[in-house]
């Protein structure tokens, strides 16, 4: 009987997941046909169970398809991109601190502009005042369609925008608050007041962001280096209002209420203490979840608690598997885009693994043994997914969590919540100090040798095998053949590494870094990073290097080329640094550096690297002094001229230059670079423009593109195609990341985009 309930719910969720793997949405007219196999199976008595599964699967596909089509239709029309417009509307949620300004969600009033999305993500650089949640504003904005940079093993911003139902992004040029006496968004206003209260109480504490996250779920104030440390030790799930915290507080509220209620006969005579405890626990969970902003882990925990409370209220014990899967199906029904979030799966699968392993059986031995076994179950269940999404495993995660979970859940979080009521601020400050002591341990673990294991993302078949392997390994001890689960895990945990490079072969990635440049070059045993892109690119680039690059190039003193250099130099202190920066530049202080001077060269694994520019003693502007690198394996040649312009190209043409197979267009495709004579001399087969989507400079310029097209070179664009992956050897291969990993929600490069090549 239980299977008849569980399997259709699982099939429904599978249908939603399947829809989100498609490269395009199915035609609406074809969706009814999906129900035919299920209806046919239901008509036969022996296949009715199969029929119910097929119908549930089709229902999941149709539900997700309808929701996806609705959201895509609400996106900003391409014709409105780049237009400056005046919009009135209301602030939704908490404005978040971002680099050089604020990031906020804005809900425009209806009827102002045809095709305007219901929710827009706006960035406001250096605002004069901070908007209040629920407040009405008039903004002068410039909007874009949802777009995000696309690189291997990196965050998919377009997927996140779809999940959050944000139909456009934009920049605020100016803003004016509007008078509005109506009470709006009281919960978000309370969260904003609490945030201000904690910022004042904690002052300049480096853990203020963590305490704010534990209290109200707002994580934007946590510094990037702390996030990297939390990820390296596997405790990111604790640095927020997690399901564990909500469950703990609900249980404490229920126990306290039951204890007090039983001591008051008048209350007990009117209402039983057990039911009063249930109500108190549920109310506590709801209030804390609202403070958290109802994130996916919060929704999962709240729904599971509500279902468990309903079972207790009815005095009917429900199986844990039914509560878990019902919560899963309900979350997916309410928000079919939740399955696109790694946090959704990490949250549900951790709980599911603990339920399957059986907490009761885990505690049959000593408490410390049960704790270790619990950590083992959680780590084992999430390991394949961590490899899939992040390409790495924090090896010290079980140890870090064994220390962090009791400290954060039993001390730091309760002190934080009690501190909101403490006028002296001492409890909040104590919570920050306690977390600081924990972070000292995390720093040691993150700095330990082999703290993080980096492996290739597992394939779909390896993930399926891993799911079976985890199920076997966590099964009851009496089950024979549990050891086979370890074998089933091996393909996922060892990964399918990319085809290794031989001598004479290279792999080059021109990253989709926005308006900037960053290029990774790999040979069989060496790696090089040419430029770091604008500030904020360090997390992406650090994730692409399992070990520090042998060489880091800072081509010239422009922020869109070296903006992330300071952060990367701190992570890669032993990389050899080549540059054309001024000698007094702070990035060079205390380091052994080399100036990239024309004629200098070296060789790695049969690949020759040679500087073509600037010449010795050259004096010019930052762009004119750009390091220009030639990569040559004897079969193919790649040229990276950074921001070199037409005058420098003309000077360099005085030397005999070889034909180039791949040219990274100078200065992001500016009209003042990549001239006709330059193209005629180099004869590039491929030209790559590294530029930001709809950037304000208009790169790549129409004149440059006309010259490249007249030459007969094939054009590649990071803004529309994502990262460009190049592999050289006997043959030359180029691929665009958006083409390798297509998704139905991608906007850049669509036929209706005016910038499509």
TrEMBL record:
The chain crosses the membrane at residues 237-261, 273-291, 320-338, 344-362, 374-393, 399-418. SMART domains: Lactamase_B. One of its GO terms (cellular component) is plasma membrane. It is found in: Cell membrane. InterPro entries: ComA-like_MBL (IPR035681), ComEC_N (IPR004477), Competence_ComEC/Rec2 (IPR004797), Competence_DNA_uptake (IPR052159), DUF4131 (IPR025405), Metallo-B-lactamas (IPR001279), RibonucZ/Hydroxyglut_hydro (IPR036866). One of its GO terms (biological process) is establishment of competence for transformation. This is DNA internalization-related competence protein ComEC/Rec2.
């Amino acid at each position: 009987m239980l299977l008849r309930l569980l399997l259709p719910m699982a099939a429904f969720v599978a249908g939603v997941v399947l829809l989100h793997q498609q490269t395009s949405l199915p035609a609406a007219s074809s969706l009814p046909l999906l129900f035919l196999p299920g209806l046919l199976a239901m008509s036969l008595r022996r296949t009715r169970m199969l029929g119910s599964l097929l119908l549930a699967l089709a229902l999941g596909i149709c539900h997700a398809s309808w929701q996806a089509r609705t959201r895509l239709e609400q996106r900003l029309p391409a014709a409105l991109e780049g237009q400056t417009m005046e919009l009135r509307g209301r602030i939704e949620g908490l404005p978040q601190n971002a680099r050089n300004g604020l990031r906020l969600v804005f809900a425009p009033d209806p009827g102002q502009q045809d095709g305007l999305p219901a929710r827009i993500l706006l960035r406001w650089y250096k605002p004069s005042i901070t908007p209040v949640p629920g407040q009405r504003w008039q903004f002068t904005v410039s909007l874009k369609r949802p777009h995000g940079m696309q690189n291997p093993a990196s965050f998919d911003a377009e997927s996140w925008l779809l999940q959050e139902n944000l139909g456009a992004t934009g920049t605020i040029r100016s803003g004016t608050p509007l008078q509005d006496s109506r009470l709006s968004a009281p919960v978000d206003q309370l969260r904003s007041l609490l945030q201000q209260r904690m910022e004042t109480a904690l002052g300049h504490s480096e853990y203020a962001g963590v305490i704010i996250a534990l209290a109200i779920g707002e994580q934007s104030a946590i510094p990037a280096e702390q996030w990297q440390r939390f990820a390296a030790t596997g405790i990111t799930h604790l640095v927020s209002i997690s399901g564990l915290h909500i469950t703990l507080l609900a249980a404490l509220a229920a126990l306290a209420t039951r204890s007090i209620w039983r001591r008051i006969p008048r209350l007990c005579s009117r209402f039983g203490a057990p039911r009063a405890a249930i109500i108190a626990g549920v109310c506590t969970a709801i209030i804390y979840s609202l403070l958290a902003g109802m994130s996916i882990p919060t929704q999962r925990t709240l729904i599971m608690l509500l279902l468990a409370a309903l079972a207790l209220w009815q005095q009917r014990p429900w199986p844990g598997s039914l509560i878990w899967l019902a919560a899963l199906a309900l979350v997916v029904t309410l928000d079919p885009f939740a399955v696109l979030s790694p946090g959704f799966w990490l949250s549900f699968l951790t709980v599911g693994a603990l339920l399957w392993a059986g907490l009761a059986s885990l505690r049959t031995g000593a408490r410390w043994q049960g704790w270790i076994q619990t950590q083992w179950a959680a780590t084992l269940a999430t390991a394949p997914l961590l490899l899939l999404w992040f390409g790495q495993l924090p090896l010290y995660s079980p140890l870090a969590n064994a220390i962090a979970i009791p400290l954060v859940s039993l001390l730091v979080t309760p002190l934080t919540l009690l501190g909101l009521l403490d006028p002296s601020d001492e409890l909040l400050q104590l919570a920050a100090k306690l977390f600081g002591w924990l972070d000292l341990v995390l720093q040691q673990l993150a700095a330990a040798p082999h703290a993080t294991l980096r492996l290739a993302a597992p394939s779909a078949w390896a993930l399926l095998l891993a799911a079976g392997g985890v199920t076997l390994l966590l099964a009851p001890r009496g089950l024979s053949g549990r050891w086979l689960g370890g074998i089933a895990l091996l393909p996922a945990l060892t990964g399918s590494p990319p085809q290794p490079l031989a001598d004479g072969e290279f792999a080059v990635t021109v990253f989709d870094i926005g308006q900037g440049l960053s290029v990774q070059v790999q040979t069989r045993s060496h790696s090089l990073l040419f430029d770091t892109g604008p500030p904020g690119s360090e997390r992406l680039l650090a994730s692409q290097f399992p070990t520090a690059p042998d060489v880091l190039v800072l081509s010239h003193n422009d922020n869109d080329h070296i903006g992330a250099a300071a952060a990367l130099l701190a992570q890669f202190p032993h990389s050899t640094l080549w540059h054309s920066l001024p000698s007094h530049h702070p990035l060079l202080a205390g380091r052994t550096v080399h100036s990239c001077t024309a004629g200098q060269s070296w060789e790695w694994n049969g690949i020759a690297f040679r500087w073509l520019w600037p010449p010795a003693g050259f004096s010019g502007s930052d762009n004119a002094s750009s390091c220009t690198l030639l990569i040559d394996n004897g079969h193919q040649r790649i040229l990276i001229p950074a921001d070199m312009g037409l005058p420098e190209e003309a000077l360099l043409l005085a030397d005999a230059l070889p034909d180039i197979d791949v040219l990274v267009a100078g200065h992001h495709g500016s009209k003042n670079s990549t001239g006709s004579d330059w193209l005629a001399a180099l004869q590039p087969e491929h030209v790559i423009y590294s530029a930001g989507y709809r950037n304000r400079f208009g790169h790549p310029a129409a004149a440059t593109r006309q010259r490249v097209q007249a030459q007969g070179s094939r054009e590649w664009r990071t803004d529309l195609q994502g990262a460009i992956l190049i592999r050289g050897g006997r043959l030359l291969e180029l691929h665009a990341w958006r083409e390798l990993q297509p998704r139905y929600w991608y906007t850049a490069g669509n036929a209706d985009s005016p910038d499509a090549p």
